[in-house]
């Protein structure tokens, strides 16, 4: 199902990793400026005719912090996909995740969180999430694919791919923190080292935020003390309390349709939910060790 990737020229990623985890939220604190992301932190684009100005670091449209990258269409369909990409480290066992929001149906086709092995200009596709103009979407690679249903325009999705190059030699796909597909990994993919967000510019764009790249081997060895996070009371009507053995960096609440409805930062341990409608929610709690998701019932 994958379209052909044209030859790209990449520059090496030069970024120091803390705990073998890299987080990209396009914030000023990470060294990003508002305006075109192309040329910032080695982000690059390969396209037929979409200008650099279509790839903007913007504020107020994020899932994490204040900023994100918004990619807009020029309404000039490109027969070949347009690639927004950057180099990522080569790990034996790799985890890459991102939040993405696609603009509308019956317009552009997308490949989000698309991973490649770049071997001196020769490209092998590991896999990614394919969002079709019809609304159907898939966990997809050159060996097989899995239908995931129908995607909703204007909704934030958390996508994650885990690749084991050594032991299991497979690729796992997660949608909103749920494992949705496991596939063999092509023998051509020696080490995934290239992260792409792709579209064909056919009248709609997308937003990407909160990219996290992890070395799973390092995290398993070094993370001796596991994070303990508790949310109470549950069900709750007015307030919830969050208790953690680590500093809470941010708390995000999503409703049943996946829409972000509330964000709290700065070690929030008590959250006011009185204004939220009754129903089921997911709470995403970020600590120094990562992100943990809990279910919440608002009554």
Quick structural overview:
With 299 residues, the chain is mostly beta strands. The chain is built from 1 helix and 23 strands.
Summarize the helices and strands and which ones pair or pack:
Elements: E1 21-24, E2 35-36, E3 44-46, E4 55-59, E5 67-71, E6 82-87, E7 93-102, E8 110-119, E9 122-131, E10 136-140, E11 145-150, E12 156-164, E13 170-175, E14 178-184, E15 194-199, E16 206-215, H1 216-222, E17 229-232, E18 239-244, E19 248-254, E20 260-265, E21 270-272, E22 279-287, E23 290-298
Signal peptide: 1-19
Domain Secretion system C-terminal sorting: 231-297
GO molecular function: hydrolase activity, hydrolyzing O-glycosyl compounds
Walk me through the structure.
The protein is mainly β. The chain folds into two domains: 21-215, Exo-inulinase, domain 1 (Jelly Rolls); 229-298, Immunoglobulin-like, CATH 2.60.40.1930. 2% of the residues lie in helices and 49% in strands. The strands form four sheets. Strands 1, 2, 4, 5, 7, 12, 13, 14 and 16 form a nine-stranded antiparallel sheet that branches. A seven-stranded antiparallel sheet has the order 3-6-15-8-9-10-11, with no helix packed on it. The radius of gyration is 19 Å and the shape is globular. Pfam families: Por_Secre_tail. InterPro entries: ConA-like_dom_sf, Secre_tail. Residues 231-297 form the Secretion system C-terminal sorting domain.
Number of domains: 2
The structure class reads mainly beta
Shape field: globular
Count, helices: 1
Number of strands: 23
Give Rg in angstroms. Answer: 19 Å
Second rung of CATH, namely the architecture of the largest domain:
Sandwich
Name of the CATH class of the largest domain? Mainly Beta
Distance between the termini: 45 Å
């Amino acid at each position: 199902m994958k379209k052909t990737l044209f030859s790209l020229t990449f520059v090496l990623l030069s970024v120091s990793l803390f705990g073998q985890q890299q987080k990209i939220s396009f914030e000023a604190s990470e060294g990003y400026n508002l305006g075109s992301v192309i040329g910032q932190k080695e982000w690059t684009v390969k396209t037929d005719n979409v200008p650099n100005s279509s790839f903007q670091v913007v504020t107020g449209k994020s899932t994490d912090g204040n900023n994100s990258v918004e990619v807009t269409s020029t309404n000039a369909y490109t027969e070949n996909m347009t690639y927004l990409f950057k180099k990522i480290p080569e790990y034996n066992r790799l985890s890459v995740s991102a939040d993405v929001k696609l603009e509308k149906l019956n317009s552009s086709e997308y490949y989000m969180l698309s991973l490649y092995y770049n071997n001196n200009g020769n490209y092998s596709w590991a896999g990614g999430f394919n969002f079709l103009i019809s609304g159907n979407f898939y966990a997809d690679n050159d060996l097989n694919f899995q239908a995931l249903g129908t995607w909703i325009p204007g909704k934030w999705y958390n996508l994650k791919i885990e690749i084991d190059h050594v032991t299991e030699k497979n690729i796992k796909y997660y949608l909103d923190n749920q494992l949705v597909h496991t596939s063999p990994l092509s023998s051509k993919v020696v080490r995934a080292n290239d992260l792409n967000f792709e579209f064909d510019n056919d009248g709609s764009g997308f937003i990407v935020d909160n990219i996290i790249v992890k070395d799973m081997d390092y995290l398993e060895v070094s993370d001796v003390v596991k994070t303990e996070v508790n949310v109470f009371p549950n069900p709750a009507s007015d307030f919830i309390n969050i208790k953690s053995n680590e500093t809470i960096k941010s708390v995000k609440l999503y409703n049943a349709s996946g829409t972000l409805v509330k964000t709290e930062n700065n070690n929030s341990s008590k959250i006011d939910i009185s204004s939220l409608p009754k129903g089921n929610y997911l709470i995403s709690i970020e600590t120094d060790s990562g992100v943990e998701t809990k279910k919440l019932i608002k009554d």
